[in-house]
Specification:
It contains 33 helices and 30 strands. It is α/β, with parallel strands linked by helices.
């Protein structure tokens, strides 16, 4: 048969290849394994619902698409691809084509427009137009064909059909050549694929609607990547004679890969005993937590749940338990826990692992920490990556009854490494960007959809997202809503309008009527059951607190703390900018000494920042060993990143919801406090008559600051928690507040952010039968700029900090560095020396200066994959440098200091 001469994979190092028809059947067999052993029911269901609600037919469609995905390689333009430099195998394959009558040019570059006829698009075009081309009696419907065209990560844009006729030669359909052999080969592959699956003709293949197209595209990519791994699906000798059994190859390859299956619990709990099973016999759920689990149990068709409750009131535990109930209803394959920052993700990750350890799991689960610095998280690094059968079974323990070893609850499976595959692991903790990117027009975004459709999604600290990010969040929520994947949102300070927008976005509606939409009850749980939205007001059963709130001058902070801490105690000082934090820390050290003051912000190198966070958790965490006296000065990292508790707080003014978050770190845990600190007190700085001190209004919008200041002025010096939380937040964000110039500017900025987000925001799901994902990713954002595209912030410049010494270079901790030849361990440690430069130095001029310095002094280091492409900030022996006219200095106490910073 002529198709035996066509190649799919070939080696550059010897006479080894995979014939095209074998790779296609390999991929189809992998598809069957994926469907039966890995894909959760929460993914199978929306695929089945996108065609005929029949999962048997859905599997058949997936298998067909997997088998057909590379028919576009049966074209002269693809078969002419050669190794560089060319090998003997290239020549043997070319001669094999000629002997079968498949005429082709020797090099792909001899074909006009070869780059616009990639084989994924060729597959779609050949099958979609197979009747017109004479390849089969019927053509494949566009809704199925586009999945094949998207299997390299991006569906075609409008106008793709013209390519077939513009470049007929590339497809082997040039009428001037009168070459029927290519058509025969393509027709034979189509027939082989149909027979393999059991369709009579292409017209039998169902036409999935958009949500099915997206999920099937993701599954096809996964199947193709697995079947393309030469370690698990080895290449064959070019002159092999033995019959090849793809089912056996797939069984062996699947065993080697050893992907953990979906989350399958042993036990199903139906009452509050689920809390003690997961968090210990001493755990007593509060009313909010019981309301969350009861709402989940009462739901027939889980949708979105929003939990609004005070800071430190156990929303995380409520969400995890509700997620488990929702899993049992939807048969989801895992959980994705999204948080605002890398620091908050790092804080939740060990709690997720602790929860996983107590789950009744049928098998070990894969887990990922998904953010840009995950490789430096010690808890994550301790989860050794497993990729082989032997490794995994060694960790699971044997089946011998005498073996007392327990299987690991979670492993960091190597296959899920990298940005594109991270969300495919069972349990993932990461930054909110990972979810927002679900709504970004970016290549391979269907893998995010596949990963998230198979999970219960938990979104924490939802108040922390600005108007720009909220546009992506609302659009992202429409997709789990379309897939019917549960979403749980947590916040202590969520405005009513935001709650309403999130619920409606999930359900893909402009408005949903009901009392829930205007409820100012607090705490409050709002949840949907099918298309019905319900809410449950909760009687707060925690400690109600009256917090004293007073204004305080920046320069009076030291005097105030000297009085309040005269008998000891722990104070938190939260500033709006790094420079204000550094200035405040300097003043307080002068008064209290270096040992009594800890400064923390975003401009520390990674080891120093992690060491500071660990110290603070050890001192001020729930079970921390509190020092006699401590003052912690920080920026927004203290607002949301750490579960720590202060006796008194001094804070710069901030929008009301964020100010309340900071107050939430005050008397957070029940403990004995010094007499002067027994009543919770918050002192607000940064207010300068009718304005604000330098730098504050560059961080926060003037309208929100003015609304907060006005509310503080009317409070008579007291905030009652939790009673005042909802009224204060809703008043601060009241759209009906009197119009002012500042409010107009705020509204204009919000509109500008929304319009900016529209540029790269994916369109919402469509359920019309004739709609496809053609033109779905018409504005592609590359991987490098993906996360930056879903945050409306300046592109900060990060640099690796090293010190130039008399003898060469060293890290800031004094460890000497070789001038060349970094080993892997040292390169990894070097990659941890990253620091973010301030806004004033985050520009092209700085990047050019750092690049020139890097190339001049340490270019040899860039050959290591750990630091490839990085910029280096090279300090002198005093830990200083001149950078673009500014003096920068790094100290372990203050982090990165710069002069003349505005």
């Amino acid at each position: 048969m002529s198709i035996s001469a066509l190649w799919a994979k070939k080696s550059a190092e010897g006479p080894y290849w995979i014939p095209l028809w074998i790779h296609m059947t390999d991929t189809a067999e992998v598809a069957k394994k994926l469907w039966d052993k890995w894909t959760p029911d929460s993914v199978k269901r929306p695929i089945a619902n996108s065609i005929c609600s029949d999962e048997v037919q859905a599997k058949k469609l997936f298998t067909f698409l997997a088998a057909a995905h590379d028919i576009g390689k049966a074209t002269p333009v693809f078969q002419a691809k050669r190794q560089y430099p060319p090998t003997d195998l290239d020549e043997d394959i070319f001669n094999g084509l000629l002997s079968c009558g498949l005429s082709a040019k020797k090099r792909r570059e001899e074909y006009g427009g070869y780059s616009v006829t990639p084989h994924a698009l060729a597959t779609q075009l050949l099958l979609e137009n197979s009747k017109e081309l004479g390849l089969s009696d019927t053509g494949l419907c566009k809704n199925a064909a586009v999945i094949l065209g998207a299997h390299h990560g991006k569906p075609p844009n409008t106008g793709y059909t013209d390519i077939l006729h513009a470049y007929e030669e590339n497809f082997g359909h040039d009428v001037n050549l009168c070459n029927e052999k290519w058509k025969q080969a393509q027709s034979e592959l189509i027939k082989l694929t149909l027979e393999y699956v059991g369709y009579n003709n292409l017209a039998d293949v169902p036409a999935p609607i958009v949500k099915g197209q997206v999920l099937l595209s993701g599954l096809i990519i996964v199947a193709d990547w697995i079947a393309s791994n030469n370690g698990n699906f080895p290449l064959l000798p070019f002159h092999w004679q033995t019959e090849t059994d793809s089912a056996a190859r797939a069984q062996m390859g699947w065993s080697k890969l050893n992907l953990p299956g979906s989350w399958e619990p042993y036990h199903f709990y139906q009452d509050e005993s689920l809390f003690t099973a997961r968090f210990g016999s001493a755990f007593q759920p509060n009313r909010m937590q019981m309301a969350a689990i009861n709402a989940a149990y009462a739901t027939q068709e889980p949708g979105i749940m929003i939990i609004e409750a005070p800071m430190g009131h156990g929303k995380t535990e409520a969400a995890l338990v509700a997620a488990e109930v929702y899993r049992n209803l939807t048969e989801s394959g895992g959980v994705f826990f999204a948080l605002p920052t890398q620091a908050t993700s790092d804080g939740i990750f060990p709690r997720m692992l602790g929860w996983l350890d107590k789950l009744d799991l049928c098998e070990t689960q894969s887990v990922r920490l998904a953010h840009g610095k995950a490789q430096f998280n010690k808890g994550y690094a301790d989860l050794q990556p497993f990729s082989s059968t032997a490794d995994a079974y060694d960790s699971y323990g044997s089946d011998d009854d005498t073996d007392e070893s327990e299987p690991a609850a979670a492993i960091a499976h190597q296959w899920f490494s990298g940005r594109k595959k991270a969300l495919l692991a069972n349990f993932v903790v990461g930054t909110i960007d990972q979810l927002l990117l679900m709504a970004l027009k970016q290549k391979h975004v269907m893998l995010r959809h596949l990963g998230l459709a198979g999970k219960v999604v938990i979104i924490d600290e939802c108040h922390a997202y600005d108007a720009y990010m909220s546009q992506y969040l609302k659009r992202a929520l429409t997709w789990p809503g379309a897939y019917k994947s549960p979403v749980i949102i947590l916040s202590a300070t969520l405005p009513i309008d935001t709650r309403r927008e999130l619920i409606c976005a999930y359900h893909g509606k402009e408005n949903i009527e009901g009392d829930w939409s205007n409820s100012q009850a607090y705490p409050l749980i709002t949840y949907s059951d099918g298309g019905v939205v319900n809410s449950r007001a909760i009687d707060f059963d925690g400690e109600c607190r009256s917090v004293s709130v007073e204004q305080l001058a920046f320069d009076a902070a030291a005097d105030k703390l000297e009085d309040l801490l005269s008998d000891g105690g722990c104070a938190g000082v939260i500033m709006d900018t790094v420079q204000r934090a550094q200035e405040m820390a300097s003043k307080l050290r002068d008064r209290f000494g270096n040992e009594a003051v800890i400064l923390i912000h975003s401009r520390f190198i990674i080891p120093d920042r992690m060491e500071l966070e660990e110290r603070l958790r050890g001192y001020l965490g729930k079970n921390g060993e509190r020092p006699e006296m401590l003052i912690v000065v920080g920026t927004q990292v203290l607002e949301q990143s750490l579960d720590i508790d202060f006796d008194v707080i001094i804070t710069d003014i901030a929008p009301m919801d964020l100010l309340l978050q900071r107050i939430g770190r005050l008397h957070r845990h029940i403990r004995e406090r010094k007499e002067k600190l027994r009543k919770p007190m918050c002192f607000v700085t940064g207010i300068d008559n009718d304005g604000y001190e330098r730098g504050i209004d560059s961080v926060y919008n003037l309208h929100l600051l003015n609304m907060t200041k006005e509310l503080l002025d009317n409070l008579c010096g007291k905030i009652s928690l939790p009673d005042d939380i909802a009224p204060l937040v809703n008043a601060a964000y009241d759209k009906n507040a009197p119009q002012t110039l500042e409010k107009e500017n705020w509204e204009n900025k919000r509109r500008a952010q929304e319009q900016k987000a529209d540029s790269f925001k994916m369109r919402e799901p469509m359920s019309k039968p004739n709609k496809s994902i053609v033109n779905w990713l018409n504005t592609d954002v590359d991987d490098k700029h993906g996360e930056a595209s879903v945050r409306d912030s300046y592109d900060s410049v990060d640099a690796l900090v090293v010190k130039k010494t008399r003898d060469g270079f060293s890290l800031l901790n004094g460890k000497e560095m070789p001038t060349a030849g970094l080993d892997d361990e040292l390169a990894r440690e070097l990659a941890r020396q990253s620091v973010s430069l301030p806004r004033q130095l985050s520009n092209i001029k700085t990047i050019d200066a750092l690049r020139d310095s890097t190339n001049e002094h340490v270019s040899s280091w860039l050959s290591s994959p750990w630091v490839s492409g990085e910029l280096f900030l090279i300090l002198d022996e005093n830990n200083s440098a001149n950078l673009c006219g500014r003096k920068v200095k790094y100290t372990q106490q203050d982090g990165l200091l710069t002069d003349h910073e505005n």
